[in-house]
Amino acid sequence: MARRHDPERRQRIIDAAIRVVGEKGLAGLSHRSAAAEADVPLGSTTYHFKSLDELMVAALRQASEGFAKAVAANGALDDPGGDLAAGLARVLGDWLGGDRTGVELEYELYLAALRRPALRPVAAEWADDLAERLAHRTDPVTARALVALADGICLQVLLTGAPYDEGYAREVLGRVIPTGRG
After folding, report:
1. Which CA distances in Å does 172 have to 88, 89, 133?
2. ∠ Cα 116 117 121 (to 5°)
3. Which of 41, 53, 126, 174 has the greatest CB tally within 10 Å of its CB?
4. pLDDT tens digit string along 104-120?
5. Domain HTH tetR-type spans what residues (predicted)?
């Protein structure tokens, strides 16, 4: 029997892994559960992803694109004359106000890096990208502090279920930016 060419199979497996984590949490993700969700043979998942960590890396990379898209779509961080704290607070609001399941999934994969070293470089990518974008508007140390604070605000909103307060975020982010830099 001839092999069927399926160029989308790898992507379907990644999408399936993200759905599995969204429905069952990280503990529910395995090659077998991803294969079942993607409706592909188990051998396909192990062909494309030699280890579960490789599959998680691909899923985290794809999931973290959600925040990058929110930043790019908003454009608030690109205005050199705009209020940097207000712009970042608005970006966080747009991201948290979107598909909450996607945000939760991204954080679940992000926090999995605590126990899975293979995920750490990918988990750091979003913070590095945001810090680099912010460093164009302020200094690198302040940019890193803003990323850490934004990350903490998002995590608190997700963990407590409290609504995102853009005014609060704008105020505390503004306190980190040196006068005349934001």
Report:
1. 11, 10, 19
2. 120
3. 126
4. 888 888 888 899 998 89
5. 7-67
